[in-house]
Design goal:
single chain, TIM Barrel, Tachylectin-2, Chain A, 2 domains, 14 helices, 31 strands, 22% helix, 26% strand, elongated, hydrolase
């Protein structure tokens, strides 16, 4: 994996640099007694850094550990003393002594206190589920017991505990519900009830769902579905906890990253909880299934006398890799919590095999910091110097229609409102291919917004394939323009010969419905029409290669067979034509939109990071014309500037780096004095390129008119 190799070289270089620095006075500050950097200080603008406390640490009996915790961590969670079996071992008999001390410790040290956990199948008292005769209780009785427990515990710490793991580990790795006593007796809604009881007990506390093996695709998809279902019921889930019980080889970082983005797409905060990395071999991956228990075998406990240097190096690299990932996504990750302070404290020494010797945490058995801590601090400092910190992040994207798949948003201000005209993705069952046949859209909706952060109104279906007399298939990226009291929708659609044409539909209202003309625009071809008004004239930009068929045309005439230029030849261009006065046809022959580099040379077809592929859009800022477009298969959203609508345009840079999913159809519009980018990604669908979700984010310009680049992987919600 390319990222892993990159981090390995960085980590080894850091170690070498530190060794050389010892001879050059690099550590003289430490020798002179100047305060060493702490994790919580290095990461303060990134995310909270937490640790799970055991009773020795809560009661400050382990003096060395307590000092390290106070210095390095700004968030704490109780490893065991706040679980239901410990708090209420018998019905009505609550034992708060240890939990009270835990909360007191956090308050005295100005730490964010996390309660773990209200509902968990594994360490729930048996009396929850049985009556005095040992028989299973009814649904009504268990609901009442759950309510009493949650209400009593959360109310006791109201205003003191920052957030609660409300439900823990309710979904199996394959995505099905765990058949726990809670599930079997109450049903799936034990989860929604638990969240409702907790919210009622402390309306201001954050409420989380927490689970292990969250990189597993089945679990990932089911957790996203669960959270969205709760949200649809009006139940807020403030955060999703990704337990970080990791190994040296599993899970893959790519799958872990997909889950970070998928969970962030729900609008919930992402927490990395229970982080540890085991070095020990095991024949099965059981995630963090506490019930797993296996016989001790010497060959499965190879490091009883210490960790070999090569394994230690591998562990430090792996932990550094994950912290690099967390820093990359610090815009959506709110907290990272280690499941224990030092190797000797870790539960992994006795799970899933009792009596082994593991090395999973940041501090060793002598409470000495491992080398990766310096690496984490340096990475955080380097990231901060680049300006990548949460405190300065004002450009947070927002999903606009979380309950449906909408893509290719064309946004305009009509009648004082924002109107958005997207294509409508759906699971058509068509096999994915380079021609884009799986993008088999069949209707359009219109959406409107009075406030960029406000409610999004769905005006429903305004045009379908069945409404278009000349229709074949595939309603792709459309746009709408206004003139003389009429709204004109321009849409690409394959005719009955499977050739893309551009059609026109008309409405008296910006929200439709739209009535299609009987024929496509004369001489039209390809896809992605964008209409730009300038000084009373309307210009259409259009075109897209590959499935968009632009490579089948030269000089507005169809070729006998498609022809793509060689890599060292000028690239295929987007097209422009002024529209006729009645807005129904081209008013002139379409021309090329030429994009040049800073030396005045046209971009070449082989310049895949910069050349045009599809998705034209034009806006005007401070007298300059900005032509933006997608590079398609390399997934950049780029822009070039010119002095008139026809260009030529000079390449300036990247507006947005690649998103999850295919390409970056988009629009840019000014509203209430600010500029916004409307676009889409495929995070909510788990990366399915044909199921995309519409988003908006604020766009910012530098004083020289260049656009500040946006991170396409930024999933935090505004």
């Amino acid at each position: 994996m390319k990222r892993k190799c990159t981090h390995l070289s960085r980590f080894m270089f850091t170690r070498l640099f530190l060794c050389l620095a010892l001879f050059g006075g690099f550590f003289t500050a430490r020798a002179e007694g100047i305060k060493e950097p702490a994790l919580k200080d290095a990461l303060k603008d990134k995310f909270n850094i937490g640790v799970a406390l055991n009773l020795q640490q809560i009661w400050e009996r382990d003096v060395t550990a307590t000092k390290i915790i106070k210095k390095n961590f700004n968030s704490i969670v109780a490893e065991n003393c706040m679980k239901s079996a410990m708090l209420q071992p018998e019905e009505g008999k609550f034992m708060f002594k240890d939990a009270d001390k835990f909360v007191e410790f956090g308050e005295q040290n100005q730490m964010k206190i996390i309660g773990h956990t209200l509902i968990w199948h594994s360490q729930a008292p048996r009396w929850f589920f049985t009556d005095k005769d040992g028989k299973e209780v009814s649904r009504e009785v268990l609901i009442e017991r759950v309510k009493n427990h949650i209400t009593t515990v959360v109310s006791r710490y109201k205003g003191r505990v920052k957030g609660w793991d409300v439900v823990n580990e309710a979904i199996l790795d394959d995505g099905t519900f765990r058949k726990s006593k809670f599930y079997n007796i109450i049903g799936e809604d034990f989860i929604s009830l638990a969240f409702q009881f907790a919210r009622a007990a402390d309306p201001d506390a954050e409420l989380y769902y927490n689970d292990f093996s969250m990189a597993a695709p089945g679990k990932r998809n089911s957790v996203v579905a669960l959270v969205k279902k709760l949200q649809s019921q009006g139940i807020k889930v403030d955060g999703i906890g990704m337990q970080g019980h990791l190994g040296l080889e599993h899970p893959s970082m790519q799958e872990f990253e997909k889950s970070i983005l998928a969970f962030a797409s729900t609008g919930a905060k992402v927490m990395i909880t229970e982080l540890d990395i085991s070095v020990l071999p095991f024949r099965e991956n059981v995630g963090a299934e506490v019930s797993a228990n296996f016989d001790y075998k010497k060959e499965l406990d190879p490091y009883t006398k210490g960790l070999p240097n090569d394994v230690s190096e591998k562990w430090n690299q792996r932990m550094g890799d994950f912290f690099a990932l967390f820093l990359k996504h610090s815009n959506v990750i709110n907290r990272v919590t280690l499941w224990g302070l030092s190797d000797g404290d870790s539960w992994k020494n006795n799970w899933p095999i009792h009596g082994r010797t593991d090395y999973p945490l940041l501090f060793d058995r002598q409470h000495k910091a491992k080398p990766v801590i310096d690496e984490i601090i340096k990475m955080a400092d380097a990231d901060l110097k680049k300006g990548n910190n949460r405190a300065n992040t004002t450009r947070s994207p927002r999903y606009l229609v979380p309950n449906d798949y909408m893509a290719d948003p064309a946004a305009h201000v009509f009648e004082g409102k924002l109107y958005i005209y997207p294509s409508h993705d759906w699971e058509s069952g068509v096999e994915e291919n380079d021609n884009g046949d799986h993008f088999n859209m069949k209707d359009y909706h219109v959406f409107s917004m009075q406030d960029i952060n406000g409610e999004v109104t769905d005006h429903g279906v305004v045009l379908t394939v069945k409404d278009i007399p000349w229709a074949g298939r595939q309603l792709w990226d459309s746009d709408v323009a206004f003139k003389n009291g009429k709204y004109y929708m321009y849409f690409p659609l394959k005719d009955r010969n499977d050739i893309f044409r551009i059609g026109v539909a008309i409405s008296d209202k910006p929200y439709g419905s739209f009535i299609s003309e009987k024929h496509p625009m004369l001489g039209s071809y390809s896809i992605d029409p964008c209409v730009f008004e300038d000084n009373g004239k309307h210009y259409m930009y259009f075109g897209g290669i590959w499935g968009g068929q632009l490579q089948r045309y030269r000089n507005n005439k169809a070729l006998e067979s498609a022809a793509t230029p060689a890599d060292d030849e000028p690239s295929i261009c987007s097209k422009i034509a002024q529209l006729s006065d009645d807005m129904m046809e081209f008013g002139e022959q379409p021309r090329d939109i030429v994009i040049k580099d800073k030396d005045g040379k046209p971009l070449l077809q082989g310049d895949t990071q910069r050349r045009f592929f599809e998705a034209s859009w034009v806006h005007k800022y401070n007298g300059k014309y900005y032509f933006s477009y997608s590079t398609g298969d390399t997934h950049n959203l780029c822009y070039a500037t010119g002095d008139n609508p026809y260009g030529p345009f000079v390449y300036q840079g990247v507006i947005m780096t690649p998103v999850v999913g295919w390409t970056t159809h988009h629009s840019i519009v000014e509203y209430n004095g600010k500029w916004y980018l409307f676009y889409h990604d495929s995070v909510p669908s788990g990366g399915k390129t044909w199921l995309r979700s519409m988003k908006v984010v604020e766009l910012e310009y530098n004083p020289d008119g260049t656009i500040k680049t946006l991170d396409g992987m930024n999933q935090s919600e505004g």
